[in-house]
Amino acid sequence: MTKSYVFDVKMTCGGCSGAVSRALGKMDGIDSYEVNLEKQSVVVRPKTATYDEVFEKIKKTGKEIRSGKEVDEASEEAESSSAAGPAEVVA
What we know:
This protein has 91 residues and is of the alpha+beta class. Strand 2 (30-36) and strand 3 form a beta hairpin. Helix content is 34%, strand content 34%. It has a five-stranded antiparallel beta sheet. The radius of gyration is 12 Å and the shape is globular. It contains three helices and five strands.
């Protein structure tokens, strides 16, 4: 089963979500990620990157990480299908 890292990140504008997207886009070991400004969420699907490595990368953008967790893909898909909103998905 594929795992994902889900973070609740305080982002107040497009610049905030853009900073997180740019940081994750430069990171090795990530299969894909989704940054959602409206839901204030960041979902990362890693290849080899650890939870702690991703956490530190987001933290270095200066954004407040309110919470984070590792979930299996089935749980994450159930959450995302129940809530609508614009998201930036990068694969």
